[in-house]
Amino acid sequence: MKKKKPNKLKILNDPIYGFIQIPNSLIFDIIEHPYFQRLRRITQMGFSNLVYPGANHTRFHHAIGCMHLMQKAVQVLRFKQVDISEDEENALYIAILLHDIGHGAFSHALEHSIVDGISHEEISLKFMRKLNDEFDKKLSLAITIFEGKNPRKFLYQLISSQLDIDRLDYLKRDSFYTGVTEGNISSDRLIAMMNVINDELVIEQKGIYSVEKFLIARRLMYWQVYLHKTGLVAENMLVKVLKRAKELAEKGEKLFSSTSLNYFLSTKISKTNFNDKTLEMFSKLDDYDVLLSIKEWTHHQDKVLSLLSKMIVNRKLFRIEIQNNKFDKQYISKKTDTISERFGLNKTESSFFVFSDIIINQAYNSNKPIYILNKKGKIEDIVNASDQLNLQALTNPVIKHFICYPK
Amino acid sequence: MKKKKPNKLKILNDPIYGFIQIPNSLIFDIIEHPYFQRLRRITQMGFSNLVYPGANHTRFHHAIGCMHLMQKAVQVLRFKQVDISEDEENALYIAILLHDIGHGAFSHALEHSIVDGISHEEISLKFMRKLNDEFDKKLSLAITIFEGKNPRKFLYQLISSQLDIDRLDYLKRDSFYTGVTEGNISSDRLIAMMNVINDELVIEQKGIYSVEKFLIARRLMYWQVYLHKTGLVAENMLVKVLKRAKELAEKGEKLFSSTSLNYFLSTKISKTNFNDKTLEMFSKLDDYDVLLSIKEWTHHQDKVLSLLSKMIVNRKLFRIEIQNNKFDKQYISKKTDTISERFGLNKTESSFFVFSDIIINQAYNSNKPIYILNKKGKIEDIVNASDQLNLQALTNPVIKHFICYPK
Amino acid sequence: MKKKKPNKLKILNDPIYGFIQIPNSLIFDIIEHPYFQRLRRITQMGFSNLVYPGANHTRFHHAIGCMHLMQKAVQVLRFKQVDISEDEENALYIAILLHDIGHGAFSHALEHSIVDGISHEEISLKFMRKLNDEFDKKLSLAITIFEGKNPRKFLYQLISSQLDIDRLDYLKRDSFYTGVTEGNISSDRLIAMMNVINDELVIEQKGIYSVEKFLIARRLMYWQVYLHKTGLVAENMLVKVLKRAKELAEKGEKLFSSTSLNYFLSTKISKTNFNDKTLEMFSKLDDYDVLLSIKEWTHHQDKVLSLLSKMIVNRKLFRIEIQNNKFDKQYISKKTDTISERFGLNKTESSFFVFSDIIINQAYNSNKPIYILNKKGKIEDIVNASDQLNLQALTNPVIKHFICYPK
Amino acid sequence: MKKKKPNKLKILNDPIYGFIQIPNSLIFDIIEHPYFQRLRRITQMGFSNLVYPGANHTRFHHAIGCMHLMQKAVQVLRFKQVDISEDEENALYIAILLHDIGHGAFSHALEHSIVDGISHEEISLKFMRKLNDEFDKKLSLAITIFEGKNPRKFLYQLISSQLDIDRLDYLKRDSFYTGVTEGNISSDRLIAMMNVINDELVIEQKGIYSVEKFLIARRLMYWQVYLHKTGLVAENMLVKVLKRAKELAEKGEKLFSSTSLNYFLSTKISKTNFNDKTLEMFSKLDDYDVLLSIKEWTHHQDKVLSLLSKMIVNRKLFRIEIQNNKFDKQYISKKTDTISERFGLNKTESSFFVFSDIIINQAYNSNKPIYILNKKGKIEDIVNASDQLNLQALTNPVIKHFICYPK
Lengths: 407, 407, 407, 407
Prior knowledge:
Four copies of one chain form a homotetramer. By secondary structure, chain A is an alpha+beta fold. Chain A is built from 20 helices and nine strands. Chain A has helices at 4-8, 25-32, 34-37, 59-79, 86-98, 108-111, 120-134, 140-146, 153-159, 165-178, 187-192, 208-226, 229-250, 259-266, 276-282, 287-297, 303-313, 329-343, 347-350, 382-385; strands at 11-14, 18-21, 194-197, 200-204, 319-323, 355-361, 371-373, 379-381, 398-405. In chain A, the strands form three sheets. Chain A has a four-stranded mixed sheet. The first copy, chain A, has a three-stranded antiparallel sheet with strand order 5-9-6, with helices on both faces. The first copy, chain A, has a two-stranded antiparallel ribbon with strand order 1-2. In chain A, a hairpin with a 2-residue loop joins β3 (194-197) and β4. In chain A, α4 packs across α10, α13 crosses α14 and α16 packs across α17 (303-313). The N and C termini of chain A lie far apart (60 Å). The B-C interface holds B 180-182, 184-186, 189, 206, 209-210, 212-213, 216-217, 219-220, 223-224, 324, 363, 387-390, 392-394, 396, 398 and C 180-182, 184-186, 189, 206, 209-210, 212-213, 216-217, 219-220, 223-224, 324, 363, 387-390, 392-394, 396, 398. Chains A, B, C, D: Residues 59-171 form the HD domain. Chains A, B, C, D: One of its GO terms (biological process) is dGTP catabolic process. Chains A, B, C, D: InterPro entries: dGTPase-like, HD/PDEase_dom, HD_assoc_2, HD_domain. Chains A, B, C, D: This is Phosphohydrolase. Chains A, B, C, D: GO terms for molecular function: dGTPase activity.
């Protein structure tokens, strides 16, 4: 009976790719592990579904989708005589499956409030090591690749680079579920044009327009979707409400929360004290802990907490203004005064309702170039290879300033 | 500023239909209401995402999608000279938007555990009446239609019949998000072939094959998706865990839960005592209350509760057997004995782990026929109109028996 | 240089499947052969584009698509431990690529007018044998399979049966290009459920609803698309105009035509005298020969020929009436008289303008059953395996009568 | 009966947009006219189907698709309070339907061989005027708009500008049928963001990324699809074969051709002598005349004509080299010598087999800017409005040189 189990689930449906095949039983078992199953309860795009109601896809599905694209990449590269051993192949699948396993509930919001000072990549690595122990060290090669320590650079570049499998799936998937068809990219074609020269991942010359389009599509997704005003506001309000809750918890105030959320609210977590128990607690924390708590906080006696919570739950979101220059201090303080008076809050409390920050997007990072393999067999940065489009301009980070306050 | 608000949100993205337009500010305000926003936190397909990982779409999106299709239907019917007043049009949009607002968390599971004895349609009606009070009686006509009390039958049939707008959206939507392309139906074509004869909704003759295909697609979706073994098991386990929690709560045992879930666990709700407070509590209950509580119950001292909870959260689901005949009592009691011994449970406790039930699907209900308008201008039941396919057979309900128990 | 050529074209774009890979250079060379390239100039659906303007896809693309699905089928079956040698695999690709190579211009129309008495399958076989000579007998196994002479029945069933790869592609493709989404089938899923038991192609139990849906979709496509009134009329008018042209040519009248069309108009071709020259001429005949000739015939002095030609070119198509019973002789002769008088034609001439015939469709042929592999490992006809839907009814051929005459 | 006709065809299927509605009977009658029906026999992308086998869509379907998008544009603009009268609306539909009616067989190829010196726009205008006479001057306003003579500039800009309805359909359609998904644009979104300020067509601020993506997608389609090596070679070979045929015809040599092709081969057509008869002949000339003639010319005694024809029909296309600089004269003459010797051709004859030319693409033309309506209500050229992407670079035409010769 036991043996048959993997078979049953060997194939998963994906609205985007059709069928996804689970290649072997080790991978099947990793997917079945509670650590990985947790990803079913973390949405890929956080509060973006407040703007794009179709965007409820999970990190689970994204990770599975990445594994599928990785299978295609391996197939294409082998077809082009790139030598990839069975162990390396397997390690690629594991590494891409687990690359985001360290993401917290509502992804980035959590990183900026309750688990500060440690990146999700570092947490992913902790999970991988834990799993490696459980699975008889079968994840060792995957970990080496994930850490960028394997001499064959392209293995790492498939996992993490400006044209990695992660991006090829998430841009396609996010575009699909939001309905923003303009962000759609041709993952298939980009993969079909991959090659490896001196252990470096490259794109063949004829793929140059596809890469350009990929960069432009990604840029569009950033400004139109990921940094969409409404989603941005909601995410910032989430950060604020969690910060407030943490303040209250640290002061010893009672507030509704699940066991694991409570752990993170009442404990200061830093790189140095992130231990096994922290990992275990982290592995139980997902969107449900956060959102239900916020729902309950709507009744809390702390005005800041309850007000913010109500606004989030009932989607009465702050107004946001965005501009290229920094907001004038006077403007901010005038806003703060108004709010302070309107809601009867003191200065500190008001800072949860009126705040200013920046958003940054760099469309292309020339430190880790996307390489084009030209017809003469040489490789060059896409920025130089492109015949006309001034991609150099995309390397300048775009910075915008915003201010939020209640409507 | 106030005035501009509706404008901003006039258009919603839908991966299926492209853009959905919100027709006016009354409808916009209904959508903004917390009662309706709650639907963002209730998935359309409950635990089906354990089988089809893409199926995380919400009742919110389904309701919005229905409104969109209703706009198309009104357009088509008016084009065919069917008289529909502006008030009726608006009422249709409101009625279809709110038709499912009474659905509880995880939809059907809740109806069979903690809010027994009152259907979601009845609760929808309670919500509509409450909203009607809030919105200056502007929902009155919508309510009359929803109750089937309007003399123009087709208005009701667009909301609720065997070929209503509800089904036209959910079959298409569920097929889309699960990736089960075979369940895809051509809502557009079916709507394009709608007409009204003597206030009765009919499908024009040339649409006969489309209706047949619609019935077959729906039947396929039932057996392949809605009643998929794994989803079925998970839903039944959910019912059991909630029943156990209710038992414990009624006995006065402490157990983690949100305010509103706690209300329903500790109160016996019947048709007669479902009052305003109940409605308010219900309006705050969604998937997050249920799932987070289950996560917490994994640590509860009650063995039944914690065991079931762990199995659900970590996706260690029961085995299920399905057959055409009733399961033998002896077979069931043998299974119960095994489980009882294996987990150290008494008889009553074991009944949460080994249980048998039936599933029923009737592909076509001849009491509320789908009418075909034939070339001679007469209307007849699709069962008689179809030239060959024996649709009569589809009127017999298919009943299957199943038994569940831990693997 | 020679060696590199195959590489260049190894991948073809398909709007339906994405990328299609050409597996090896033998297959590449067969595709490059003028016999196969001719299929680029023959539309898959003949005059259906007069109803569905998107339906301009060619037999070339269909054949390539079939090869792609066959690659998937081989992969699935091998995954299930079905032994398929490399030679058999290759033969399957060749056989499916060439299964329709004997189709004439405008497909079926030609078979009923100028190349009577020999089926397109027989002509396909002639082409295969000719190619076999050119390609050093490398097509021998493919031919054996195509003829149904290979002992492993499933190889033949993949090429020709009620659930063959041919149908899996053409239903999907025709539905895609016409925009009749209801005819869409899930080729992927059906292939994923294929298996082989005792050399017999079977579908696994859980695929039963997919097969049902496939049969219903096919039936819908027949009545809604393939036998659509307008397409039917156009095709019949095409048969008539070609018959008239042949009559005139046989009488020695001069009329515009290409070399190869002229050959078929002026020569009586039967099974016995279909020789190498006939094949050569046939290999040069495509939609372009036929349609341009009809365009020129609009100026011909023969009234029947020019009138019919004008009506076709300018899309002034006949009216068609369809009913379940035979048309009354008197009704037909009355129509004939009217037309005869209106256009000044004698009796014989009028028969090109008023004619009656039948259309038949059998949705399921129980002589070559689709086998379902049930859970007990036994195989049974889908008609018996289906739990409810009365598929037996689908075995009765539906016959309809029609009459055509100018509007 | 007459009245009912339009009804029958009121709705057309489109794989891209679903259903397309024909708005009224005047438009229906224009579509039914033989001039317009001719577009059914002219493919949109000429010989691109030799590279992308799915690209067999016709100018007929493109024109119908444009009309559909124009309906959406009118709806959007009116929703934004832009005043468009019913007459203007109708004129827009007619103008966009007929904007390409002057395209010859295989589109551009013909313009460069047998109907030199007169653009397809000029011929379109001739057709419109002829139709205007036939339809009681009901096309007058459409013609004024098409000629750019209407004072309301945006009407013309919808028909012809850098973001006109024509491009919104053809980029989407060509991308769809070729399967080059990267060229897909979001016509819906772009239209949703259209507005009119001072009779000027503008795109609202938030659409800026969509416009950028549109420009990049178009650029990609040019280099990857429209100027794809293989398609380019085939089109150039077509130009050559037609030029040769014209030479022979002018010398009085007999060669197979249809009546209308013969007219153009044997007559020198210039702007001054393009009369009513020319128009009538042109209205009968389509892809079928050209391709069938080439098929027949494979047997012609003129070596150049027959050799080129065979190469085209059997897809034995020339090799092409592309580079940024002009090809060296010596290189060309060396190639010519080789070919001359290999095929036994004299110098003049060889020039049909070895030739060099340029291709140009300008991604953005700053003389007719795309205007963005910024938040302050001012309009500015997208080149200035874009925050980062250096669109200025796109205004420089890219010029590439190519040389072709037999493999």
